[in-house]
Each structure stands twice: as C-alpha cells, then as structure tokens.
Amino acid sequence: MPDLQKHITVEPGKRGGKPCVRGMRITVGDVLGWLASGMSVGEILEDFPDLTEEDIRACLGYENNQD
C-alpha cells in the first residue's frame, strides 16, 4: 500500500479542506466517484495525466482507513 501521507494532503484553503491528491485540486472523493461511476484506472489516468496509479491506490487506502 502506498504511503498515504505522500499522496493525500489536507489544506484548509483548498477544496474546502477535503483530502486531495498530492496538493492538487483533485480530491479523494473525485477519484472514488470516478471509479464508482465505472471509469477504469486507465481511463482516469488518461483523463488526468498528473495522477499516477499509486495515487489512485492511495485514495482507496485512505477511504478504507476512514471506516
């Protein structure tokens, strides 16, 4: 599992303090929503080339740690 602290950041002034991927304006919720809507990891990476597969795994890991 990726190191979540390297991939998931929370900044009060960015996206309402929601957890984001590496300081970008892409939230964990965005990534999880894309996956839930049926997008594949490959499609997400194609549409958002700044993301990595490890970023997506970190979003899934972050969500699992919140339960």
How does the major sheet shape up? 2 strands, antiparallel
| Count of DSSP strands | 2
Fraction in helix: 40-55%
Low-confidence stretches: none
Number of helices: 4
Rg computed from alpha carbons, rounded to a whole number of angstroms = 11 Å
What does this structure look like?
The structure is a single chain. 51% of the residues lie in helices and 6% in strands. A two-stranded antiparallel ribbon has the order 1-2. The protein has 67 residues and is mainly alpha-helical.
Write the layout of secondary structure elements.
Elements: H1 4-7, E1 8-9, E2 20-21, H2 28-36, H3 41-47, H4 53-66
Antiparallel strand pairs: 1-2
Please sum up the structure shown:
The chain has about 70 residues and is mainly alpha-helical. The protein has a domain at about 1-35. The chain has four helices and two strands, in the order H-E-E-H-H-H.
